[in-house]
Amino acid sequence: MTIDVLPRATDDLVTGYHFYEQKEQGLGSYFRASLFADVDALRVTAGVHALVWGYHRSVSKKFPFAIYYRVRDAVAQVHAILDCRQAPQLLRRTLENR
After folding, report:
1. Sequence-separated (6 or more) residues with CB below 8 Å from residue 39
2. How far does CA 70 lie from the centroid of its chain?
């Protein structure tokens, strides 16, 4: 399986990185590495996660974030990497606009 992280999902990662880096120096780098590992795991697990609002949702192992993706022709396209602590209505609206 090939993974394609779309630009808006990359922006989500950058936002999360800055949030955690402000909390503690080095935590942003740990966040980024952890989420990259979660995204990379999609090479093996893409398509097995529950469908939520039209996207497969994989929950991060170490942070309260979820990876929202779609599978097409052996490519897992990552559309969003969002903080699960947000209101469900906000998460849904964000995904509808992608």
Report:
1. 3, 5, 67, 78, 81
2. 12
E-assigned strands of 1-98?
2-5, 51-52, 55-59, 65-72, 75-83
Q: How far apart are CA 24 and CA 70, in angstroms?
A: 33
pTM score, whole prediction = 0.95
pLDDT above 90 covers what percent of the chain? 99
Number of H helices, E strands in the chain: 4, 5
Q: Which residue has the tokens 């922006």?
A: 11
The structural domains of the chain, ordered by start, are 2-96 (3.30.2310.20)
Name the residue with tokens 């906000």: 90
Tokens read off for 48: 């097995």
